[in-house]
Amino acid sequence: MISNVASHQSPASVPERESCADHRNHAAWTSVKQERWEGELVVEGEIPSWLNGTYLRNGPGVWHIGEFNFGHLFDGYAMLVKVHFEKNGRLIAGHRQIETEAYKAAKKNKKLCYREFSVSPKPDNFLAYVGELAKLFSGASLTDNANNGIYKLGDGRIICLTETQKGSVIVDPDTLDTLGKFEYSDPLGGFIQSSHPIVTDDEFLTLLPDLLNPGYLVVRMEPGTNERKVIGRVNCRGGPAPGWVHSFTMTEHYVVVPEMPLRYSVQSLLKAEPSALYQFEWRPERKAFLHVVCKASGKIAASVEVPLYMVFHFINAYEEKDKDGRAIAVIADCCEHNADTTIIETLSLKNLRSFHGQDVLPDA
Fold first, then answer.
1. What is the pLDDT of residues 62-117, one digit of tens each?
2. Is 246 marked within a binding site?
3. In the chain, at which end, N or C, are there fewer CB atoms within 10 A of the end residue's CB?
4. Total structural domains in the chain?
5. Do residue 149 and residue 280 come from a single domain?
6. Which sites bind Fe cation (predicted)?
């Protein structure tokens, strides 16, 4: 139930953003001033009468705290956005900052307090640095800034996610309130996960990169539970660390596990200052692979070396079958950036804010 909305005659004003010094900057790359807003939007034309329901998105909404400014698109503190379509043609919108520990600590202390995508808190002295390392190895210093995706589980719960497992947050789809952490009840451990699980009415399926024993766990969680169960494991063929798995894909019977040459870098994680590729390093000599895991047995059906690739998002996957209905190939579609990691730096706020009417994104 949505309450406290503006009347049909008096649509609410659009929420303010921080002003841009350069009018050519896109408003999307500036912080939203209001932590919470809701109101009716003005409709030009007519919304179809059959369109009824709520559309939810989340993503970065605040790129500065006090005098501190983030440097990358992926750093921004998470904001939940809704658009609610009513049968009578009214359109209600709203947003609210997700109340993560990282956001609340930054707001209280007026400074960065957790490790984000491209930046880490700077220790004041050597003892503070040692303490920061201890927090890193325990996972305590990692962000829970759930700004990467929002999913409706088969049991109806709505969760927002990021690439740290602690950044799994339950939200209310009507009020946009942050209800608390989504606590996994299994003993699988680890600190990181794929930002984009595959969620259906019947299952939640994701990948858990293993930094200590390089590889990936393929796990499944049933609706109504918080327990992930292991389907299978893929050991890295390239090493010395698993490749980044922002997303992956699957077919009816198989999970496709990517192993990119863009690999997690322990050396970069130990540094307080960001490196060129932040917490990653490009290791083309370690090659690139795709692994195909059977969902039923957990066994590796195929492990194939492929040309070097740089991928954020997989799009689709399907099986090609013979005349008897047996799978003879798995086709995976993705948005591949020509094995070029410059797309990561292109998404820095400095670059995005310097947009001058040209397409600055590298080809994919």
1. 999 888 899 999 999 999 999 999 988 889 999 999 999 999 999 999 999 999 99
2. yes
3. N
4. 2
5. no
6. 196, 246, 313
